[in-house]
Design brief:
Length: 307
């Protein structure tokens, strides 16, 4: 009886902490894969392919969220409280892709077959299992605030090793090439801006309107998002339905990490990086072993006790 009472009174784990704990291994693999792909080759042509792949992912889940927000009376309550429209990244991705590919980039690119399947997967859960959409801001936006800020810092500080496209400069007042990592105050509402939906306001669909706005503190935004996700009404409910739906969010977060790793490995050049890294690793290992054996042998011959 004491054990039962203790279990019943136990405070449920915060959603963000549970997701971090249960995706830790996948998260580490994804981080290493991104850093290996970017900072071993340091080639903007690989980086822009990664941008393009993730653009389709962010665009699809943001569209699904906003489709749900247009039906406030029918929306799953967790979805309503999980999305932060001011964090929307679709237009920032489009600005970065225009920087790296040129203004007509949309005419020259298309999602791969695996990306199309990923996009269909997102649309399917939006239609049939909307509670799983909670996993996307909890992984994709928090990912920008954590690992994404590290990537941004390395890109900006190492421009000589991470060459910009010809005649272009990373950063600057227009966030050239790094817009997805920069959050700015929104421009005043205009006639072309979407209106408020219930207690949620959809942000401007024109990234250029916000380029000169004051930069927001990413740490503050990150903490606000974590608080928002951890305070979703009913998330800590102990009913069978709530427990099942919460587990579905955890499972979807793991699915997101797995699909994101597949997205990265299919980028041209990343597999070559892996091959070169593995060859280099074993080459260094062989040299280290040979050097150790040589030094050990020399030390042995130099020892007066050696017979």
């Amino acid at each position: 009886m004491a054990t039962t009472a203790s279990t019943a009174s136990r405070t449920p784990q915060l959603l963000t902490e549970e997701l971090r704990a249960k995706t830790k291994g996948l998260h580490g693999k994804l981080d290493r894969l991104v850093q290996l792909g970017l900072f071993t080759v340091l080639d903007y042509r690989i980086y822009r392919q990664l941008l393009l792949g993730f653009y389709y992912v962010y665009k699809t889940f943001e569209e699904e969220y906003e489709n749900h927000l247009k039906k406030v009376s029918q929306i799953h309550p967790w979805v309503l409280h999980a999305y932060a429209p001011e964090l929307r990244r679709t237009e920032a991705f489009e600005a970065d892709l225009a920087y790296f590919y040129g203004e007509d980039w949309k005419q020259n690119v298309s999602p791969s077959k695996s990306l199309q399947q990923y996009m269909e997967h997102i649309r399917d859960i939006g239609k049939h299992h909307p509670e799983k959409l909670v996993a996307f801001p909890a992984t994709m936006y928090l990912g920008i605030f954590f690992g994404g800020q590290i990537v941004r810092s390395k890109i900006v500080k190492a421009t000589s090793f991470f060459p910009s496209p010809p005649n272009k400069k990373l950063g600057g007042e227009h966030d050239g090439g790094i817009a997805i990592f920069t959050f700015r105050e929104k421009a005043p509402p205009s006639s072309s801006s979407p209106s408020s939906l219930g207690n949620v306001t959809i942000s401007s669909n024109n990234y250029n309107d916000n380029q000169k706005g004051k930069k927001k503190d990413p740490i503050k935004l990150r903490n606000e998002l974590k608080t928002q996700l951890n305070s979703i009404p009913g998330l800590d409910d102990t009913s069978e339905k709530a427990i099942k739906e919460r587990q579905a969010i955890v499972d979807e977060a793991r699915e997101i990490f797995a699909r994101n790793m597949d997205l990265i490995t299919e980028v041209d050049g990343v597999s070559k990086v892996w091959t070169r890294w593995i060859i280099r690793f074993f080459l260094y290992l062989a040299i280290a072993v040979a050097l150790y054996q040589f030094l050990t042998k020399e030390s042995s011959f130099g020892n007066p006790l050696h017979l």
